[in-house]
Structure formats: structure tokens, C-alpha cells
């Protein structure tokens, strides 16, 4: 049964206002809404959609949401689902950016920036440990993750990221081919599907080439390119966008402002990629609203294009799963490198911040409290330290 795009937009708008907890929680909420409650999609079809979105770069939960919208009302439904789910967090992150622009981080609000940086310590550490345990399961992947970490720590540039991911992808493909892995079923792709997938894939690749070719002469081009290439290379979960964006925008953006935005994003519902709204507003002080919209569209565009290809090829992409293990290991290394610098180096600089960082780690890693709870705790404790003039 088809749905109207407006109804899809309103439903996902509500989900965008209430979906706290990150991508895994989002997928659970989608399942509760559309598999159990409304029974709009079967359990097996929903699982297949998740598997498909996990095979491609991009924000998995947002891609699953777009896939659901596409199933309900075609591409109009996909656009409505994305807009509804993204709009609340994008608006909130834009407001956070305006707060920074109006001196919120300096005029008596420096303690809040410190709190957000300490939130990043716990969240990123938890992400690194979880991804290491899940994705680095043998000596080969562990070595690749460490090599990627050292390489990116030494040369934190977009070109280094692209190179590491490309090398890992080629290595995984060669290894799978040499191991004798064969397709369990023949690949049959209709001509129109093939042509459409090739066309979209060419556009996606040209976008990466254009993004890597951008110079420092045009700030707007840098804004679009930085968000586009970050959205195009996100393997392994939303937190991986952190090192990608950091290498694109820091400098010229101050790393404290950047990490504050990441901390803000942990307290917001909806997708983590909405941090693009914050970054756009902070970067373009003369046109913050336009820059926020441009950043959001640029970071989501490559994932949407890859979803188009994935929906056309369907389960045929699952044959690539074994060939992505080195890519997943490499992105663990990227996240580990940024955990060291700038997450720890920016947040931990005194005895007080060291103690608060330990509290953040205990809350997030040991006690496994939600990001929203961690934000609340760190805001309260950091404010108390500010009142006591301990900083």
C-alpha cells in the first residue's frame, strides 16, 4: 500500500524529534514503527534493507530511512523520509552554530565548550573500542587498523584518507579473489538498472575527484567539497565521519569549536550527520543559514546516490561483504588517530579536565550510559567546576 509523501514526511519528522541514541537506536526505532507496529514491511525485508545499507558508505540509519520511504512512495517518499528525519537535528545544530557565532563559547560559556569536548572523549573512545572488537577480529585487520592510525596521525589529510581506504579496498578484493571465493548465484542485472547504476556511480566518483581538486581560493567550494568527500567515505558508522570532517575543516576552524559541535551532536535526536549544519553556520559567518543548508545537502548527497545504486543492484552487493573487512579495519584506525589528536589533546589539559575525562570514560565505556545521559552529566559537573573556579 502506497503512502503520500506528506504523511511519510510527518511520520519521519516525529521520529527525527524523538530518536535519541545514535544509529543503532534509530534502526531499532524504525523496526518498532514499521515492522511491529504498522507492519508495513516484513522482518526479513527490513533485515535485508539494513544489510544493504551497511554495505555502502554513508549514514546507515538515514539510508535505511530513505529506503523505507522509497518502498512506501518511491523517490518522493525517500526524499520526504530523509527531510523529516534530518530536519529537527539540522535546525538544532544550526542554532548551536549561531550560539557559537554570538560568542557563546567565549562570553561566559567556555565551560560548556569544555563539557562538549569531554563528551567527545567518552563517545569516541566507546566507538573505537566497540569497532575494534567487532571489525578487527584477526591479526591482519588489527595490523591494518594500526597502520592506518599511524599514517593518518602523521598526515591527517583528505588525500591520506582516500588513499588508505582505496588501498584497503583493493587489498580486500585481491584477497577475496585469491581465496577462491565464488558467487553462490549468477549476477543478472537488467540493462536499464545497469545503465542507471553506472551513471550514478560516475557522478559519485566525479564528485570525489572534484572535491579533491578544490583549492583554498573559494570558501564555498571548500564547504561543499569537505562535506561531500566526508559523506562519500564513511564506512563503519556515523562516528567515522569525525576524522573525515576534522581533516577537511581543522584548520582553519579551531579544533575546540569543531569538537564542541561533535559534543552538541551527541545531545541531539536524529542523524549525527546533522553536524554539517553546525559546521556550515560556523564557517560562513556572513551567510550561516545558506551555508548550513549547503553543508547538510553536500554531506548526505553521496550516500543517497549510493543508495540509489544499491536499491538497483539489491542483494547482488552482498557478495562484496567479505571484501570490505580491510576497509572497515582502516576506518577503525582513522577514528583511533583522531581519538588521540585532537579529542584527547584538546579536552585533557589539566588535573581537573583529566578527572572529568575519566568520569566521561567511566560513564560511557564502563557503565554504558546513553550519549544523552553523558551530555547531561558532563554539563552539570563541568558547570559546578566552573562555579568553583577550578579551570
What report would you give on this structure?
The chain has 391 residues and is mainly alpha-helical. The chain has 16 helices and no strands. The longest helix has 42 residues, at 60-101. The protein is globular and about 65 Å long. The termini are far apart. Residues 181-188 have low confidence and may be disordered.
The SSE string, one letter per element, is HHHHHHHHHHHHHHHH
Beta-strand residue percentage: under 5%
Question: How many domains would you count in the coordinates?
Answer: 2
How many helices? The count is: 16
Summary?
By secondary structure, the protein is mostly helical. The protein has 16 helices and no strands. Helix 4 (60-101) packs antiparallel against helix 13 (288-313).
Which terms would index this structure?
391 residues; mainly alpha; 2 domains; 75% helix
Helix/strand layout:
Blueprint lengths: L4 H14 L4 H15 L5 H12 L5 H42 L8 H26 L3 H16 L3 H21 L12 H23 L5 H14 L8 H9 L5 H12 L8 H9 L4 H26 L11 H23 L3 H16 L4 H17 L4
Amino acid at each position: 500500500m502506497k503512502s503520500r509523501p506528506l504523511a511519510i514526511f510527518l511520520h519521519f519528522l516525529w521520529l527525527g524529534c524523538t530518536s535519541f541514541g545514535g544509529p543503532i537506536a534509530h534502526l531499532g526505532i524504525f523496526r518498532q514503527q514499521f515492522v511491529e507496529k504498522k507492519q508495513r514491511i516484513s522482518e526479513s525485508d527490513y533485515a535485508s534493507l539494513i544489510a544493504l545499507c551497511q554495505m555502502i558508505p554513508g549514514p546507515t540509519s538515514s539510508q535505511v530511512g530513505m529506503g523505507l520511504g522509497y518502498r512506501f512512495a518511491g523517490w518522493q517518499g525517500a526524499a520526504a523520509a530523509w527531510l523529516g528525519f534530518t530536519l529537527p537535528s539540522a535546525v538544532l545544530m544550526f542554532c548551536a552554530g549561531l550560539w557559537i557565532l554570538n560568542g557563546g563559547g567565549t562570553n561566559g560559556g567556555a565551560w560548556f565548550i569544555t563539557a562538549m569536548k569531554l563528551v567527545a572523549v567518552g563517545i569516541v573512545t566507546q566507538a573505537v573500542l566497540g569497532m575494534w572488537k567487532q571489525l578487527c577480529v584477526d591479526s591482519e585487520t588489527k595490523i591494518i587498523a594500526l597502520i592506518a592510525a599511524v599514517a593518518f596521525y602523521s598526515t591527517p589529510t583528505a588525500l591520506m584518507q582516500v588513499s588508505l581506504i582505496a588501498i584497503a579496498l583493493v587489498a580486500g578484493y585481491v584477497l577475496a579473489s585469491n581465496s577462491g571465493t565464488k558467487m553462490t548465484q549468477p549476477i543478472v542485472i537488467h540493462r536499464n538498472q545497469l545503465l542507471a547504476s553506472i551513471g550514478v556511480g560516475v557522478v559519485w566518483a566525479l564528485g570525489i575527484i572534484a572535491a579533491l581538486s578544490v583549492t583554498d581560493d573559494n570558501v564555498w567550494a571548500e564547504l561543499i567539497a569537505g562535506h561531500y568527500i566526508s559523506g562519500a567515505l564513511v564506512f563503519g558508522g556515523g562516528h567515522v565521519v569525525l576524522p573525515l570532517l576534522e581533516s577537511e575543516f581543522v584548520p582553519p576552524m579551531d579544533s575546540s569549536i569543531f569538537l564542541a559541535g561533535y559534543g552538541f551532536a551527541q545531545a541531539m535526536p536524529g542523524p549525527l550527520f546533522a553536524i554539517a549544519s553546525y559546521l556550515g553556520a560556523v564557517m560562513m559567518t556572513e551567510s550561516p543559514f545558506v551555508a548550513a543548508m549547503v553543508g547538510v545537502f553536500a554531506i548526505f548527497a553521496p550516500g543517497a546516490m549510493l543508495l540509489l545504486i544499491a536499491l538497483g543492484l539489491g542483494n547482488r552487493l552482498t557478495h562484496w561483504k567479505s571484501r570490505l573487512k580491510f576497509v572497515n579495519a582502516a576506518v577503525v584506525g582513522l577514528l583511533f588517530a583522531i581519538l588521540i589528536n585532537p579529542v584527547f589533546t584538546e579536552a585533557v589539559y589539566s588535573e581537573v579536565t583529566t578527572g572529568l575525562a575519566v568520569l566521561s570514560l567511566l560513564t560511557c565505556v564502563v557503565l554504558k550510559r546513553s550519549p544523552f545521559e553523558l551530555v547531561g552529566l558532563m554539563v552539570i559537573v563541568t558547570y559546578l567546576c566552573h562555579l568553583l573556579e577550578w579551570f
